[in-house]
Amino acid sequence: MPKYRSVSLITKLGNQTMSSRIEVIQPEGMLNGIRGNQLRCEVSNMLENGTDILLIDLKEVNFIDSSGLGFLVSAMQMARTANAKLFVCSVNDQVRMLFELTKIDRIVQSFADQDDFKRQVLTTM
Question: Is the full-model pTM beyond 0.85?
Answer without folding.
Answer: no
